[in-house]
Amino acid sequence: MDLKEIMSVSGYPGLFRLVSQGRSGLIVESLVDKKRTNIPPTAKVSTMSDIAVFTHGNDVPLRVVLQTIKEKSDGNPTVDPKSVTEEELRRYFEEILPTYDKERVYFSDIKKIISWYNLLQKNDMLNFEVKEEETKEEEAGGDVKSSSAKPLAPKPLVKPVQHVSSKAAGSAGKINAPRKAQ
Asked: Which residue of 5, 52, 67, 103 has the lowest C-beta tally within 10 Å?
């Protein structure tokens, strides 16, 4: 299974498998109830291959995290994130990925990863195809950040507001309002 075919859609519960691409968006099939739906082109879609987890070193691709969970649980379903406490789930995730950044990986992200693993395991979709390029980068200790993986919790892209003083603008006594971020 290629993780590029599996995606998460903002505002829709669960994971989806890409079926086709149409004029009015993507046609996907839910892994939860097998129903097909049309996802509009304005929806925020993230493929599983584009997601990574923040660590104190290089970001770790989701594929590696899911493989580690699979090895730890011997391919069986793991803990149910709805039935354990936040502290227990954080301890479990720390066993899976000891170097994860506790400040940037939120509890909701951990819950989501564990839920995704259980959903993929239930649908027997945990055998991931790995491209030779990715394997060579990992073996050579390549920088995972240079790959196309996006972190789970992206940094905000807000530019600071720039203020222009009246002296710098060359006008005597005129007050300039702050410029809008572009």
From this structure: 103
* pLDDT per position as a tens digit, 83-141: 999 999 999 999 999 999 999 999 999 999 999 999 999 999 888 766 545 554 554 44
Question: Is residue 62 a part of any domain in this protein?
Answer: yes
Residue 51 resides in a domain:
yes
> Considering the entire predicted model, what is its pTM?
0.69
Long-range contacts of 53-56, Cβ-Cβ distance < 8 Å, separation of 24 or more: 53/97, 53/100, 53/105, 53/109, 53/113, 53/151, 53/152, 54/100, 54/101, 54/104, 54/105, 54/151, 54/152, 54/153, 55/97, 55/99, 55/100, 55/101, 56/99, 56/100, 56/101
In the DSSP assignment, the letter for residue 123 is T
CATH number at residue 62: 1.10.10.1650
